UniProtKB/TrEMBL annotation:
<dbReference type="Pfam" id="PF00583">
    <property type="entry name" value="Acetyltransf_1"/>
</dbReference>
<dbReference type="InterPro" id="IPR016181">
    <property type="entry name" value="Acyl_CoA_acyltransferase"/>
</dbReference>
<protein>
    <submittedName>
        <fullName>Acetyltransferase</fullName>
    </submittedName>
</protein>
<feature type="domain" description="N-acetyltransferase">
    <location>
        <begin position="1"/>
        <end position="151"/>
    </location>
</feature>
<dbReference type="InterPro" id="IPR000182">
    <property type="entry name" value="GNAT_dom"/>
</dbReference>
<keyword id="KW-0808">Transferase</keyword>
<dbReference type="GO" id="GO:0016747">
    <property type="term" value="F:acyltransferase activity, transferring groups other than amino-acyl groups"/>
</dbReference>
């Protein structure tokens, strides 16, 4: 499994998986994300490859000390349930041994998709990500800040959001 940077050949796939995976209120305009990548060499849009097969997409920010913040991660809906998400998280933890950080929708809000949120949260925990105890609040909603180790601090989150040009509050 590997991450292949988005290019003209895989751009349509990237967009189709992203569009199918996230509700409209959690998405960013495609052109804005492409500008983020052009603005900083630390911001990446990638297609997740399993050998030669495209299996998902991600937008992530590389940080100092071999750390990474994952803003978006989605497995192709037609391929979910085959262990690919676990393999991607393992790839990220191996590639970035300093730590992996991402956001997972806040639980306990009686949301329409509460069961899906609980399953996603449990999935991240099963795959070695811990709840940091912090909640992030940004235009997409409120999220648990998940991390692979305590070295991933809110300072790193703020660094990543600054590189992305996005604002977030942390509680």
């Amino acid at each position: 499994m590997k991450l292949e940077q988005m290019n003209q050949e895989n751009e349509t796939y990237w967009w189709s998986v992203y569009d199918a995976a996230f509700p409209p209120h959690e998405t960013l305009p495609f052109d804005l994300m492409k500008k983020m990548v052009k603005r900083s060499e630390d911001v990446h849009m990638a297609v997740i490859m399993d050998d030669t097969q495209q299996v998902g997409v991600t937008l992530y920010v590389t940080l100092p000390d071999e750390q990474v913040f994952v803003l978006f991660l989605a497995i192709d809906p037609t391929l979910q349930g085959n262990g690919l998400g676990s393999r991607v998280l393992e790839l990220l933890k191996t590639t970035y041994p300093g730590g992996v950080m991402l956001e997972c929708e806040e639980l306990g809000l009686n949301s329409d998709n509460e069961t899906q949120r609980e399953r996603r949260y449990a999935f991240y925990q099963r795959n070695g990500l811990m709840d940091s105890g912090y909640i992030t609040d940004n235009p997409a909603g409120t999220f648990h800040l998940m991390r692979s180790n305590a070295k991933m601090t809110t300072i790193r989150l703020k660094d990543a959001m600054s590189l992305l040009g996005l604002e977030t509050k942390v509680y």
